[in-house]
What we know:
The structure holds 2 protein chains of 2 kinds. Helices cover 0% and strands 51% of the residues of chain A. Chain A is built from no helices and 11 strands. In chain A, 34% of the residues are buried. Chain A has strands at 4-7, 10-13, 19-25, 31-37, 43-49, 56-57, 68-72, 75-80, 89-96, 102-104, 108-112. By secondary structure, chain B is mainly beta. Chain B has a single domain (4-112), classed as Immunoglobulin-like (Sandwich). Chain B has no helices and 11 strands. Chain B has strands at 4-6, 10-14, 19-25, 32-38, 45-51, 56-58, 62-67, 72-77, 86-93, 102-103, 107-112. In chain B, the strands form 2 sheets. In chain B, strands 2, 4, 5, 9, 10 and 11 form a 6-stranded mixed sheet that branches. Chain B starts with a strand and ends with a strand. The interface between A and B is medium-sized, with 24 and 18 residues.
Amino acid sequence: SAVISQKPSRDICQRGTSLTIQCQVDSQVTMMFWYRQQPGQSLTLIATANQGSEATYESGFVIDKFPISRPNLTFSTLTVSNMSPEDSSIYLCSVDQGSEKLFFGSGTQLSVL
Amino acid sequence: GESVGLHLPTLSVQEGDNSIINCAYSNSASDYFIWYKQESGKGPQFIIDIRSNMDKRQGQRVTVLLNKTVKHLSLQIAATQPGDSAVYFCAETSGSGYSTLTFGKGTMLLVSP
């Protein structure tokens, strides 16, 4: 399985600021995804990070709030913009290596004060 | 959309016992099911999967059972160890892309030595 490195692993941010989360995979992957896991909750898909084109967002998530980059087949970033306490969550990068099994990074624990 | 849910939010067992974690799903079109394990501070880790043309699949110390008649999925862990303590998520999809991959709310498994 792919090794997925995500950073930062955690951060505490002030309201109104933005945080960019990086996801690096040790091999080229076609599909990369960003998930949110709110406290005590399950995983919700934010968007699919498409290489060379704009990300595909799920209902309830917009590009202005969660801009995503995917410059190549091994790297993606997710920015959480203009943060509020409601954005406090774990953000997870995941990849599919073509087997329909999603593999996840260790996540970024974000706390917004 | 249709939901995937778990019967028990917390399961406490003694080391060496067998554990059974249950999951109900409501989408009759679901044809692929996955179990994930999430340890504290880590991302979800793939455990085992099963397709709808199977009733049972075994891995190392784990078995997944699928009952399509009652839309029920279970994960059995044999000889449970303290290292099995984690939150376990079921997920299901109808195979129409990752937008349809739905995660359950999770069950916390606590293993006492």
